[in-house]
């Protein structure tokens, strides 16, 4: 369904193969100019951002796509080559791009061009991995997927419930037609039965025979669906027929939370076997990177930690095992950061082994050795993120001179050693390291505020290039930072999870019972756009001088979690609704005032099977 009142613009199209982003050709996502982002925000276009694309003149075939980045030159878009071919487009030709509202996909029928695809060792996994790069599919398209530098083309014969469907967060069944180059084998003539003919018959019987696909499949973005068990066979046809059944449980369980998988493993032998497979574990935590965090933990300054669900419809018991809760509540542990199911912990009472990684779901703990030149004060400057195949664990070593630079040191999970980084100029102000975030190879750190001279700033440190950039905060965010700094809070957060099409950061200011948010539009230019401003009363939070904000965070890019003296509230910026989530036990901490920190600290959380790394041990016996 096309959104006629939404985004609509004409662009000149450029294929990925002719651009500097040729490696992004797989998938259906395009590159658009930054002006498109500004218009989408101004029109408050509904997420996910999907588009219909067609020729500007003499439109025939229509396709649909998502957007990957807003880095294209003004007046042009960069399009996958297979989409250019489907639409019969020439480089530089004018196309019309319109926002589209597509129904959630329920069914698709696919046809590979070559039998070579179904001869792969695990074609189902290859298809699922590639379809994770697609946000939608259109009937009549021929998409391209890759495996080991080999290209495969697949026809989209049918989609339901409409001619174009959205694949994001959907349960989608898949049927397959025989490949285009498949040829039915002729039945061999009957011969006399003797030793030679018996061998010949056996050889003929073992030749691959294609049987139409009858089972139920699952696309990449997908949840559970029904499957039909089929008889075992060594033929290519049966392999293609059975790959839905053989991979069905794998695919379904890989989209469940780690806690749910562990729960089912106690009653289901098949799910217990999956917990032993490294490939499944990697698949599960990668899938969870595309999902919104479903819970959070809060930690008080006066020792204590609690886990809660992010929705009133969920329960705390679904988050972490009891043994993990008891372990975290033991004396001395502080949660530095939480990312993709792993917690970075430090124990300041243990100078020999103060740093650990912990997965509360699997109850595994990994001791991180310290570098020889570490000092305990350096462990206050930790940045941790594991929304990639390898996690980032960085320590910024404090300068020996008062006016010197910090120095970055990175921990290598594979080699289990610390590696030297770069000197970093963090400016003249103190940095609030506990609010550091990592996005697109850049670590963002916000400075302290309240000084009479100069305004606070954000340091953007590119860990690959070893360079840092200073970002000015928006002019409209400066009010109150110098005159009333004790009652003003500034924080930075990610703009959603790894699946978010526009990966950036959000600056949030809380001042005089008002929340205001700005989105970083362009890192190089340092441009911001205000995206939200609302009083707490309008949000559904009735706060007075006696009932104040003890802490807040932004979860999944659009959820504001606010802690008062004894309660936690959840406000959805998109749906504009507020609900009381739970009580918390931080009353003894709320009376303390911290200039740059919160009395109640939030850490977003999702349950995954992500390994801590080699050498991790169980905290309790199974």
From TrEMBL:
Signal sequence residues: none
InterPro entries per the UniProt record, alphabetical: F-box-assoc_dom_typ3 (IPR013187), F-box-like_dom_sf (IPR036047), Ufd1-like (IPR004854), Ufd1-like_Nn (IPR042299), UFD1_N1 (IPR055417), UFD1_N2 (IPR055418)
SUPFAM superfamilies membership: F-box domain (SSF81383)
Sequence ranges assigned to domain Ubiquitin fusion degradation protein UFD1 N-terminal subdomain in this UniProt record: 7-103, 105-179
Domain of life: Eukaryota
Location of region: Disordered: 179-198, 212-231
Keywords in alphabetical order: Ubl conjugation pathway
Ranges of biased composition (kind: Basic and acidic residues): 182-192
Parts forming coiled coils: none
Keyword DNA-binding applies: no
Compositionally skewed regions (Polar residues) per UniProt: 221-231
F-box associated beta-propeller type domain sequence ranges: 309-575
PANTHER family per UniProt: UBIQUITIN FUSION DEGRADATON PROTEIN 1, UBIQUITIN RECOGNITION FACTOR IN ER-ASSOCIATED DEGRADATION PROTEIN 1
Similarity comment: Belongs to the UFD1 family.
Name used for this protein in its record: F-box protein-like
């Amino acid at each position: 369904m096309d959104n006629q009142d939404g985004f609509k613009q004409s662009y000149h199209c450029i294929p990925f193969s002719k651009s500097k982003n040729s490696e992004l050709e797989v998938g259906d996502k395009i590159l658009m100019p930054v002006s498109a982002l500004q218009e989408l925000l101004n029109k408050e276009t509904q997420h996910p951002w999907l588009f219909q694309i067609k020729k500007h003149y003499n439109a025939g075939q229509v396709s649909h796509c998502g957007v990957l980045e807003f880095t294209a030159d003004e007046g042009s878009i960069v399009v996958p080559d297979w989409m250019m071919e489907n639409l019969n487009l020439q480089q530089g030709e004018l196309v019309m791009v319109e926002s589209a509202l597509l129904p959630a996909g329920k069914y698709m029928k696919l046809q590979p061009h070559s039998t070579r695809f179904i001869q792969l060792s695990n074609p189902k996994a290859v298809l699922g991995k590639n379809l994770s790069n697609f946000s939608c599919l259109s009937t009549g398209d021929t998409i391209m997927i890759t495996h080991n530098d080999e290209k495969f083309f697949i026809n989209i014969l049918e989609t339901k419930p409409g001619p174009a469907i959205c694949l994001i967060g959907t349960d989608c069944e898949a049927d397959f037609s025989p490949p285009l180059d498949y040829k039915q084998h002729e039945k061999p003539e009957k011969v006399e039965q003797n030793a030679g003919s018996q061998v010949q018959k056996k050889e003929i019987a073992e030749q691959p025979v294609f049987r139409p696909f009858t089972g139920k499949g699952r696309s990449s973005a997908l949840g559970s669906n029904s499957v039909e068990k089929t008889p075992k066979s060594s033929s290519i046809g049966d392999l293609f027929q059975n790959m839905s059944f053989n991979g069905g449980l794998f695919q379904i369980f890989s989209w469940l939370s780690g806690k749910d998988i562990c729960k089912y493993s106690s009653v289901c032998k098949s799910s217990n076997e999956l917990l032993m497979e490294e490939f499944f574990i990697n698949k599960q935590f990668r899938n969870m990177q595309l999902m919104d965090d479903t819970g959070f933990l809060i930690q008080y300054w006066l020792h204590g930690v609690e886990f809660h669900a992010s929705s009133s419809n969920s329960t705390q018991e679904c988050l972490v095992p009891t043994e993990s809760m008891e372990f975290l509540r033991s004396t001395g542990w502080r949660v530095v950061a939480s990312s993709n199911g792993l917690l970075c912990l430090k124990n300041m009472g243990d100078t020999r082994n103060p740093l650990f990684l912990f997965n509360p779901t699997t109850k595994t703990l990994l001791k991180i050795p310290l570098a020889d030149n570490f000092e305990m004060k350096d462990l206050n400057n930790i940045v941790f993120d594991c929304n990639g195949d390898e996690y980032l664990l960085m320590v910024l070593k404090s300068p020996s001179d008062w006016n010197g630079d910090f120095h970055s040191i990175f921990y290598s999970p594979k080699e289990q050693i610390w590696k030297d980084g770069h000197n970093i100029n963090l400016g003249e102000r103190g940095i609030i390291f506990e609010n550091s975030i990592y996005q697109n190879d850049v670590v963002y750190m916000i400075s302290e505020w309240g000084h009479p001279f100069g305004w606070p700033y954000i340091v953007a440190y590119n860990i690959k290039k070893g360079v840092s950039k200073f970002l000015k905060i928006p002019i409209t965010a400066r009010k109150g930072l110098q005159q009333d700094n004790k009652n003003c809070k500034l924080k930075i957060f990610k703009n959603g999870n790894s699946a978010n099409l526009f990966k950036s950061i959000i600056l949030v200011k809380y001042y005089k019972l008002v929340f205001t948010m700005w989105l970083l539009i362009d890192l190089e230019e340092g441009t911001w756009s205000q995206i939200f401003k609302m009083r707490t009363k309008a949000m559904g939070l009735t706060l007075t001088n006696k009932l104040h904000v003890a802490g807040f965070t932004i979860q999944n890019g659009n959820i504001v979690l606010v802690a008062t003296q004894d309660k936690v509230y959840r406000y959805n910026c998109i749906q504009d609704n507020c609900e009381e989530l739970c009580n918390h036990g931080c009353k003894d901490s709320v009376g303390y005032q911290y200039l740059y920190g919160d009395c109640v600290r939030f850490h977003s959380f999702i349950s995954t099977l992500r390994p801590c790394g080699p050498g991790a041990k169980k905290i309790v016996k199974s």
